[in-house]
Amino acid sequence: xxxxxxxxxxxxxxxxxxxxxxxxxxxxxxxxxxxxxxxxxxxxxxxxxxxxxxxxxxxxxxxxxxxxxxxxxxxxxxxxxxxxxxxxxxxxxxxxxxxxxxxxxxxxxxx
Amino acid sequence: xxxxxxxxxxxxxxxxxxxxxxxxxxxxxxxxxxxxxxxxxxxxxxxxxxxxxxxxxxxxxxxxxxxxxxxxxxxxxxxxxxxxxxxxxxxxxxxxxxxxxxxxxxxxxxxxxxxx
Lengths: 111, 116
Prior knowledge:
The structure holds two protein chains of two kinds. Chain A has strands spanning 4-5, 10-14, 19-25, 32-38, 44-51, 56-59, 62-67, 72-77, 86-93, 100-101, 105-110. By secondary structure, chain A is mainly β. In chain A, the strands form two sheets. In chain A, strands 2, 4, 5, 9, 10 and 11 form a six-stranded mixed beta sheet that branches. Chain A has a five-stranded antiparallel beta sheet with strand order 1-3-8-7-6, with no helix packed on it. The model of chain B has no long low-confidence stretch (mean pLDDT 88).
């Protein structure tokens, strides 16, 4: 059974710094991996979707990478801003199964 | 309205009440989902509907009853809930394809449910 882990559970960094969030999964057989953002008490907002054949995806200050062989993905946030404070979730889509989510990393950007 | 909407946003109910959560998607998708999000736990998939047909029921207690009258509306009927059912209930939709190799799920804002 696929398991997704996100470490650390919480992270605080000063505004302006670049940072990396980590996601690991136990089974490399996946269709795709998706990164989401969740603000307190709100739903999930899709940030980036990486297909299994891709190595990375970029959107603005965000860059997500995927290394299936090692079961890892990273979300790189450049020039962090207070508005980036949120919980970041990654989810993998295994074959013939539905999305499996990690427990998330709660990010706080300190002004 | 755009995207995925959910009503109500907050709900407090007693264990003997009956209530329903509503989800509507305006994206023309053919699949809809109910998830449960409890504190410090990963999102748990509860139900999946493809083309209005229920395709998955992940061992959810019968006190939760889904209904999908058409491809853009999804309900979750609740009755005789327990305090441990208090959680954020999220609805999502996606456009499923035959290859299932690429779909992106879009989520609603959720309903915060408290069972007293």
